[in-house]
Design goal:
Layout (H helix, E strand, L loop, with lengths): L2 H4 L2 H11 L3 H29 L6
Length: 57
């Protein structure tokens, strides 16, 4: 009942790719999600390195 308001990217990719058979669209959305997550990881690591002496690399 509340799928339209509580949907996250992972379940959206699953629904569009597996259930609706839109493989190329779900692959593109998943790739975009991975790129955004990687960029955020790099940014937060740089912030953590400046604020504290502990970082991932």
């Amino acid at each position: 009942m509340n799928m339209s308001t509580s949907d996250v990217i992972s379940t959206f990719v699953y629904r569009s790719g597996i259930l609706e058979a839109q493989y190329s669209f779900s692959a593109a959305v998943g790739l975009f999600n991975s790129i955004i997550n990687f960029i955020m990881l790099i940014m937060v690591n740089q912030i953590a390195k400046k604020v504290n002496e502990t970082s991932l690399w």
